[in-house]
Amino acid sequence: MSFDLQKMLESKRAYRQQLAARPIGEKLRILDALRERTLAIRGNADHSQTAIVREEPQRFGEAKE
After folding, report:
1. Which residue range forms the structural domain that includes residue 30?
2. Looking at 1-43, which runs of residues are DSSP E strands?
């Protein structure tokens, strides 16, 4: 196996362009599949130790309080 960085970068660029050209519905299906895979990898881990941070979205130009 050879390590050709230029070829790898070109391949990644082409793949990203292919993904960008796909319809939004297909992109959302891919996102759902990735989410399911992430949950499967996590398994039944103890989530009580995980802190969840939730923030309200700000409108552009508004100052934080």
Report:
1. 5-42
2. none
